[in-house]
Specification:
The chain has one helix and eleven strands, in the order αβββββββββββ. The chain has 120 residues and is mostly beta strands. It has one domain: Immunoglobulin-like (Sandwich), CATH 2.60.40.1080. The strands form three sheets. Strands 2, 6, 9, 10 and 11 form a five-stranded mixed sheet that branches. It has a three-stranded antiparallel sheet with strand order 1-4-5, with no helix packed on it. A three-stranded antiparallel sheet has the order 3-8-7, with no helix packed on it. It is elongated.
Length: 120
C-alpha cells in the first residue's frame, strides 16, 4: 500500500511541475487592458499585463508585446504603446515573457476622431 501512495504522490508533484514556466516562476500572463479594445487611428494607447506565479500572485517580470499585424498596428514591444495605422479592421497582440505568451487580444481599429479630420 505504501508503494501505491508514493506513486500517487509522485504523480501529483509531477503534474504540478508540468505547468509551463519561463524559468522565473511565471506560469501565466494576464492582460489588464479593458476589453473590448477599440483603437482610433493615430491615437496611441498603452496596453497593460501582469505576470502570475503558480499561486496566481503577480510577480515582477519583463513583459514584451508582440503582433504579426504590423501593417495594421504600430506596437512598441517594450512599453506596450500601440497605435492604429489603419482606419478599419482588427489586429491581435500578445504579451510574452520568454516563450510564454498570453491569450491573443483583439483590437478593433477605428477611423481617427472627428476633431483630427482635415477639412479641405
Amino acid at each position: 500500500m505504501r508503494r501505491w501512495t508514493g506513486a500517487v504522490l509522485l504523480g501529483v508533484v509531477s503534474a504540478c511541475s508540468a505547468l509551463p514556466t519561463d524559468g522565473d516562476g511565471v506560469v501565466a500572463l494576464e492582460i489588464r487592458t479593458q476589453v473590448p479594445v477599440r483603437l482610433e487611428q493615430g491615437v496611441p494607447m498603452m496596453l497593460q499585463a501582469r505576470a502570475l506565479n503558480q499561486a496566481g500572485d503577480s510577480i515582477p517580470a519583463v513583459i514584451r508585446w508582440r503582433t504579426s499585424d504590423t501593417a495594421s498596428l504600430f506596437l512598441d514591444s517594450l512599453t506596450g504603446i500601440v497605435e492604429g495605422r489603419l482606419a478599419s479592421g482588427s489586429a491581435q497582440v500578445q504579451a510574452a515573457v520568454g516563450t510564454l505568451r498570453s491569450d491573443p487580444l483583439t483590437i478593433t481599429l477605428l477611423p481617427p476622431p472627428p476633431s483630427s479630420l482635415r477639412v479641405p
